[in-house]
Specification:
globular, alpha+beta, about 325 residues, 3-stranded antiparallel β-sheet, about 40% helix
Length: about 325
């Protein structure tokens, strides 16, 4: 018994000495590093040189075909949606971003309205257009990826272009980041005589449009693994580049943050290509979707719903969201 107590006391003494020794080492190391002040003037040339050397790695040769494919798919998508809009009706809410693919809008009380209007109201529908189905997301066009951060007073010196197009240009598509071939009018082109298309031709256009939508989103996802893009966590502002700009344009929390500055985070596919989820009417649903059955109805991205109503077959990954075999309301 006495021997066991002596062994325990010896073990405690040994542990105390080792912990005290480690504490002295940590104190000496922290004191050594904290005593030397870092000279930022000497580090600045090293940081700038590292940034310049990093810029030599871009654009990545293997991603140039992907960027060109994304640009081509985007052009086909815009053309296909513009053509389908001449045949199928699209309704947009007058007071909120809600969209419905059909002749008459639903009566589901999900309108957020303006600031002075009440919430959860019935939508007030008007005729929708291309920007209601494909939400435009713009970004500043940079001369090169690793240029200086855009200041607030420089916000009018840079052109605003679609964020997907800017991402593809930085990835090396379209003749070395030259944007002379792009114009806003080129996004709104459609097939002539769309009203007289046969059902088979309409199905072919819808299937091609849906395929272009999938290729576009898959290509953007691949590009974002290689090229950096930022999105504001307070609003929908997107910046394609390693660091966000300093233009004070954030209007949602402008009274809570300092002069409307953005709070940047990593962007994903939905930030550059918003899916714009809409309610969809199934064959077992009533002609006008009611507020009482909002828990039973399905959803789908606006492009997918537009193409399926034209005769295209939706990919299986959307079937759970669409609730194809769901129960209808009474």
């Amino acid at each position: 018994m006495v021997l066991a107590q002596k062994e325990i006391m010896a073990l405690r003494k040994k542990l105390f000495e080792s912990s005290n020794f480690n504490g002295k080492i940590m104190y000496t190391v922290s004191r050594y590093f904290s005593s030397n002040k870092m000279d930022l003037r000497k580090l600045k040339p090293m940081i700038q040189k590292r940034i310049q050397e990093r810029a030599k790695d871009y654009p990545v040769p293997g991603m140039i075909p992907v960027a060109q494919e994304v640009l081509d798919s985007r052009r086909l998508l815009m053309q296909g949606v513009s053509t389908l809009l001449k045949v199928l009706p699209v309704m947009a809410c007058k007071f909120c971003p809600e969209v419905y693919i059909g002749e008459k809008g639903h009566v589901i009380q999900t309108c957020c309205g303006f600031k002075r209007r009440g919430k959860n109201r019935v939508h007030e529908w008007i005729t929708g257009g291309l920007n209601d189905v494909l939400a435009p997301v713009e970004a500043f066009h940079l001369k090169h990826m690793f240029q200086d951060v855009i200041k607030h007073h420089q916000r009018f010196d840079f052109e605003r272009v679609p964020a997907v197009v800017e991402l593809c240009w930085q990835a090396g598509a379209n003749d070395g980041n030259q944007y002379s071939n792009w114009s806003p009018e080129s996004d709104c082109c459609s097939v002539d005589g769309a009203e007289s298309l046969s059902p088979d031709e309409l199905v072919m256009i819808a299937s091609g449009t849906l395929k272009a939508w999938e290729v576009l989103r898959n290509g953007v996802e691949k590009l974002l693994m290689v090229y950096p893009a930022k999105v504001c966590k307070h609003c929908s502002e997107v910046h394609v580049g390693p660091s966000g700009h300093k233009a004070r344009l954030c209007g949602i929390f402008k009274y809570e943050s300092w002069q409307g500055t953005h709070f940047w985070g990593k962007a994903n596919v939905d930030d550059l290509v918003p899916p714009k989820i809409v309610w969809r009417r199934r064959p077992q649903d009533p002609q006008v979707l009611l507020n009482e059955g909002r828990g039973f109805y399905g959803h789908a991205p606006a492009v997918v719903e537009l193409c399926t109503q034209a005769g295209a077959i939706a990919p299986s990954k959307y079937h759970c969201l669409m609730k194809l075999q769901g129960v209808a309301t009474l």
